[in-house]
Amino acid sequence: MASLAALLWFLNMLVDTGGQLSFKAAASHGVPATGPSSWKEHWKNMVVRPWLWIGIGCYIGEFFVWMAFLSQVELSSGIMLGCFNIVVIMLAGRLLFDEKLTPWRVAGILLITGGVAVIGFGGAA
What three-state secondary structure class fits 83? Predict the structure, then answer.
């Protein structure tokens, strides 16, 4: 993989992970009990918190980075490499939000990592 493509891949992981973590932070604060009125209040609270807007900004940035990345690699390789974002997000969720890493999730992480390694080291040629 060319150095520009590798840089764009890294930037894509960075902004995608930042966006997902920001959305999680926005959605996790003051989770409502039940009922339509409580959800309406929850959305009102999310809109005024910076995490929602940081997440939206990350996703806008990711769009441009992803388009640039796809201009550098074949679509089949780009999609496979983009799957690695799932691994990074899962690990970040574990570290920052104390989310569970079950044996099935760890198996998924290992399978995704193996697939990305095969593609990234020339398996798609």
Answer: coil
Domain range list for the chain: 3-123
Q: Are 113 and 84 in contact (CB under 8 A)?
A: yes
Asked whether 5 and 72 are in contact (CB, 8 A), the reply is yes
- Token pair for residue 41? 């209040």
Task: For residue 2, give every residue at least 6 positions away whose Cβ sits within 8 Å of its Cβ, in sequence order, or none.
Answer: 72
- Are the CB atoms for 87 and 101 separated by under 8 Å? no
d(CA 90, CA 112): 12
Q: How far is CA 119 from the centre of its chain?
A: 19
Burial class (CB in 10 A: 0-12, 13-18, 19+), 65: buried
* Residues of the chain above pLDDT 70, percent: 89
Task: List, for residues 85-119, the tens digit of each pLDDT value.
Answer: 989 999 999 999 999 999 999 999 999 888 888 87
